[in-house]
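Tokenised fold entry reproduced for everyone:
>
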Amino acid sequence: MVLNVLNRQSKVMAQRVKGEGMAHPRERWTGSEVDRRQFLLRAAGTAVALPSLAAIMQACSNPRDTGAATTSDPAGKGGLWESGWPYPLARQDKPVTWNIFPDNPAIASNLQPEKNATLEIYNWADYLWPKIANDFGAKYDCKVNVTTFNNMDEALAKMRTGQLTFDIFFPTIDILGKLISTKLLQPLNHDYVPNLPANAWDTYQNPFYDQEWKYTVPYVLYTTGIGYRRDVVSDEQIRSMSNPYDIFYDPKYKGQVGIYDEYRDAISMTLLRKGITDLNTTDPATIAQAGTDLIDLLNINNVRTSINGAYVGLPKGQYQIHQAWSGDMTAAWFYVPKATMANYETLGYWYPKDRAGAINNDCIAIPSASKNPVLAHLFIDYMLDYKNAMDNFSWVGYQVPQKQADPATLTTTKSVQGEPYVFPWMIDAVVQESDFKTGFLELELTPQVDALWHDAWSKFQSG
């Protein structure tokens, strides 16, 4: 079957690993398309999803009246309800159980896959191994078409207006309220997705943001910590620090320190450095102080913000310290100047020993406008198959929550790319299921609170 990727980045270069095979997705071109990480890193100052939020919410009746979410809460609301906000905000200690709308039901069981179909996938650029999609098409005798989006606001707008219709969508958990309340997602029929209860971590059998996984299944997960050059900073040095976040402020590394060009991640780092674990704080004074701490970082170390400093800049020696997502660092070895183990060993990743740091995951869902919902369910189940999930992990660099993938073996088992999924000295980058009990997630904010975060970020940007 043919995989059509509507993205010029699909023209891959020769892979660096052993000089052959398919190029890694991070071999980016320099045109206008933006991959998942690049979008997140450029999101600062754009108030992502806010420009179209009013239009989106105009189409949304109040879920307090329609029953968009319920829990065992006596008030029947669930989640965190903010004044004037029409749906609950999911929090780890305030889970949300979304209702199924009568006019947006799940498909029936025991249906046959659609014939002569093209499965339309809507995803961030290079966030799915084309081989996996091609193999699915061959198995189910269908075409697979991948369309990419640059940011979630664009994705929401196109889905809402019906400019394009899709069968598979990859949302972040902080927009599920918008998607479900406006009926842009259809509920899942679990009969078609046996691989989720069979293969996925128990955490994702009943995630707090979508209790009973009524609308989503997990895709990949990651932590946010510190990437560093091991030939400059030893593992022992950073791990022995009483507060490793202080390394961003050490003038010894002036001019060689980077943070993500993304307001939530950058501000969250300064919050964690001060021991503040509410990465969704609504307190104006706390947010303002976090912004001031960023300005201090600019004054002390002339910190640089970047879109690729972790997975490209560190391997190339452009940075010595950089804020990093675990998935970026597990794949950063693709970018070393020369593919040698000595070069791979220059890359390190730190995450708190008590696993109390920033963590998150992305999802897979089916849009309500799907023309091929049976195939869509089968694709979701296909992506939850152990082999398919692990092969995809080896290509995108981001871990999958598979029961069979013992975290202890990820540093010793070679992937189809020829190296371990995670190099053994980068053990901190391996995500544990228990991390979702000890870690802290950046979740949806109301526009009023989000504006406070953006204000703090804007002051940092202006110096």
In short: The longest strand covers residues 216-229. DSSP finds 17 helices and twelve strands in the chain.
